[in-house]
Amino acid sequence: MAERRFDVDADIRRARTPPRELYFDPQWFAQQRETVFARSWNFASVSAGLETSGCARPLTLLPGCLDEPLILVRDTHAKLHLLSNVCTHRGHLVVERECALAALRCNYHGRRFHLDGSFAFMPGFENAEHFPTESDWLTKVPLAEWRGMLFASLAPNAPVNEVVAEVERRLAGLAIVDWRYDPTLDKTFEFDANWALYVENYLEGLHIPFIHPALAAKLDGKLYGYENLPYGTLQIGSAAPGELAFELPEGHPNFGQRIGAYYFWLFPATMLNLYPWGLSLNVIEPLAPTRTRVRFLSFVQDPAKREQGAGSGLVQVEMEDEAAIQQVQKGMRARSYRGGRYAPTAEIGVHHFHRMLAKWMA
Ligand code: FES
Ligand SMILES: [Fe+2]
Question: What's the pLDDT score for residue 89?
Fold first, then answer.
């Protein structure tokens, strides 16, 4: 399979957007699976519900893309482990549903593992040589816990605290950090478009006045800000006069400003939207080259503020974005489309994303 590569000029004033095949070709998608998604941090689960020893939660990391079967297990020393859910004997899944356990036991031939994934027992292996060794343990997968969220990476290229450093800087002193995950507010969306189109759309506010009239009225369009970060981007939405804003403490980087929303994107597929009510986490799951699932998870600190300002009406905004993205997906099929150019002031985040994607895929 020929390697797919593209380049984006470092100078946004000259740069052109990626080739249209990026958005539908199965080979590009397969290459991203290994070069982007298998190496980056991706949301795995919430921490809630995993507090007691012996609780085990199976999950599939990025279904449709990585399809990696994993288990979260709390051991008897209160340590949380992320393990491969694939039995080291012949590959049956070990845990099939969320449960409480004293040990992990594979139902196919009875191999048992301790809660940290180390090998415990297997019938029929009495005469096996050099057995067991560490290769018979369930593989440990890097896990990072951040403010009620669990992130997994099959081969992390940076520590999570570096990835979220700027999020922490903007969160400092804000009441919302005491947020709690509210599962009743979970929402899932699926649409016919490549995952990267969803990310690109998220990374610019240029479209807000055109497709999001209700949101546009809550933001001060003249004060919309962009900052590129080592592992993502930040967009800062200033509240329109009379709309809800954060109460920022003295010493905060935006002290004295009326900020209605912080929109963080973390490479490749995590969005953290900070509002005066709490956090809306968007998890992007590429299901196929032209099919994407997006999950919204809400971490609420002040429920009374949920229907005010830029943090309200999120489903309507999502529907408006999905409609636009699906149109762009159709546009990518057109042989006549040769890629576009970037708006040098408003599309610095899109340009940054494309440059990161090109670098990771190379
Ligand atoms: S596959 Fe698990 S015991 Fe055989
Ligand atoms: Fe949008």
Answer: 98
Cβ atoms of 81 and 141 within 8 Å: the answer is no
Indicate yes or no: pTM above 0.90.
yes
For residue 227, list its beta bridge partners.
Answer: 234
For the CA of 110, the nearest atom of ligand 1:
3
Same domain? For 252 and 305 the reply is yes
Q: Are residues 329 and 297 in the same domain?
A: yes
Residue 214 and residue 313 in one domain: yes
Peptide bond into 132 cis (omega under 30): yes
Query: What would the pLDDT profile of 71-88 be if each residue is shown by its tens digit?
Result: 999 999 999 999 999 999
- CA 294/CA 308 separation, integer angstroms: 23
Q: Which residues line ligand 1 (CB under 6 A)?
A: 87, 89-92, 106, 108-111
The verdict on 123 and 192 lying in the same domain is no
Amino acid at position 112, single letter: R
pLDDT tens across 241-262, in order?
Answer: 999 999 999 999 999 999 999 9
Residue 1 is assigned to a structural domain of this protein: no
Report which bound ligand comes closest to the CA of 85. 1
Q: Is pLDDT at 188 greater than 70 in this prediction?
A: yes
Same domain (yes/no): 144, 177: no
**Residues with Cβ < 8 Å from 135, sequence gap 6 or more?**
88
Dmax (CA) for the chain in angstroms is 77
Task: State whether 170 and 191 are in the same domain.
Answer: yes
- If asked whether residues 245 and 328 sit together in one domain, one would say yes
Distance separating alpha carbons of residues 359 and 361, to the nearest angstrom: 5
Q: What percent of the chain has pLDDT over 70?
A: 100
CATH of the domain at 345: 3.90.380.10
- Report the number of distinct structural domains present in the chain: 2
Residue 1, pLDDT above cutoff 70:
no
Same domain flag for 288 and 231: yes
Atom of ligand 1 nearest to the CA of 122: 3
Nearest ligand atom owner, CA of 87: 1
